């Protein structure tokens, strides 16, 4: 038997033994801590690898965050990629009261642009950090612009129907995707569904990118599982908000 075969045998025996004996369960009370350390280290490594990438805007590191400064990067992105001058499809995942949805509609005035917003409008479908299930619940906002449409329900229930209807046309159109659902599950689900319709040059904005166990983790799994390259183009509030261009 070769040395490699022996090594494989030992590895298999050890794993089966750990499974049968449940030995590692003694560490189960520390699972959350281990997961925090692992996830946070993944985020830290990513940030330090990309902090000097050329971007339209990057304020890393600053000691205090200003949430509303995300509008600076929205404006820069809109102008740099001419989203305010050409027809685009804007897809927002997580609309809540419609603040960012309205901002993008007002900014992108081309008559052939289309705006789709997805939300339960019954709040978060699960706990997110200190927010409970059902927090962020709002009435469906009024959209006084025929270019916009809001789709109520979980992404898991509504997105595939929408893509069946709009998908073939979507592939050809310039897309700006705004991921603002906060949750790992919602973000990864939406990105995975959208993957077949993404083209080079599409832009994806994450509103809570540096939340290590949620949007960042979804970004990481998505890029690793779909072999897709997303290049950072803007980062604000220490990568809390981050935007990427698809380089498929
Ligand atoms: C932070 S709020 C969005 C804020 C909004 N984009 C803004 O900037 O004004 C997050 C929203 O994501 C929605 N959401 C989270 N997971 C979802 C899911 N799986 N399906 C539908 N909506 C979801 C919640 O209902 C909540 O309204």
The helix tally amounts to 7
How many beta strands in the DSSP annotation?
8
The CATH homologous superfamily of the largest domain corresponds to Vaccinia Virus protein VP39
What order do the strands of the largest sheet run in, or round the barrel if closed?
A: 1-7-8-6-5-2-3-4
Radius of gyration: 21 Å
Unreliable stretches: none
Q: Tell me the fraction of residues in β-strands, as a range.
A: 15-25%
The biggest beta sheet is recorded as: 8 strands, mixed
Helix content: 40-55%
| CATH 2nd-level architecture of the largest domain | 3-Layer(aba) Sandwich
Give every kind of bound small molecule, once each: S-adenosylmethionine
Query: Would you tell me the overall average pLDDT?
Result: 97
Q: Rough shape?
A: globular
Q: What is the element string, with H for helices and E for strands?
A: HHEHEHEEHEHEHEE
CATH topology description of the largest domain: Rossmann fold
Termini gap? 44 Å
Question: What is the CATH first-level class name of the largest domain?
Answer: Alpha Beta
Q: In terms of structural class, how would the helical and strand content be classed?
A: alpha/beta
The total number of structural domains is: 2
Describe what is shown at a glance:
Helices cover 40% and strands 16% of the residues. The protein has helices at 3-21, 31-50, 70-80, 99-107, 155-172, 184-194, 215-226, and strands spanning 57-58, 89-93, 114-119, 148-152, 175-179, 203-206, 230-236, 241-246. Strands 1-7-8-6-5-2-3-4 form an eight-stranded mixed sheet, sandwiched between helices.
């Amino acid at each position: 038997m070769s040395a490699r075969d022996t090594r494989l045998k030992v590895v298999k025996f050890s794993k089966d033994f750990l499974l049968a004996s449940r030995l590692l369960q003694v560490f189960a009370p520390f699972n959350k801590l281990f997961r925090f350390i692992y996830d946070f280290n993944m985020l830290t490594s990513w940030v330090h690898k990309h902090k000097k990438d050329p971007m339209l805007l990057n304020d890393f590191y600053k000691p205090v965050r200003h949430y509303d400064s995300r509008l600076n990067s929205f404006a820069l992105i809109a102008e740099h990629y001419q989203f305010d001058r050409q027809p685009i499809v804007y897809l927002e995942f997580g609309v809540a009261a419609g603040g960012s949805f309205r901002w993008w509609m007002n900014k992108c005035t081309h008559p052939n642009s289309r705006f789709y917003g997805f939300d339960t409008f019954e709040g978060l479908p699960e706990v997110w950090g200190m927010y409970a299930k059902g927090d962020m619940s709002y009435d469906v906002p009024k959209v006084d612009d025929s270019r916009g449409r809001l789709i109520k329900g979980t992404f898991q229930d509504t997105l595939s129907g929408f893509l069946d209807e709009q998908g073939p046309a979507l592939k050809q159109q310039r897309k700006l995707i705004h991921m603002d659902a906060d949750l790992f599950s919602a973000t990864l689900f939406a990105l995975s569904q959208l993957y077949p319709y993404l083209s080079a040059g599409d832009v994806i904005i994450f509103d809570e990118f540096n939340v290590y166990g949620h949007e960042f983790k979804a970004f990481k799994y998505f890029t690793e599982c779909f072999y897709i390259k997303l290049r950072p183009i803007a980062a604000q509030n220490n990568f809390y908000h981050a935007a990427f261009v698809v380089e498929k």
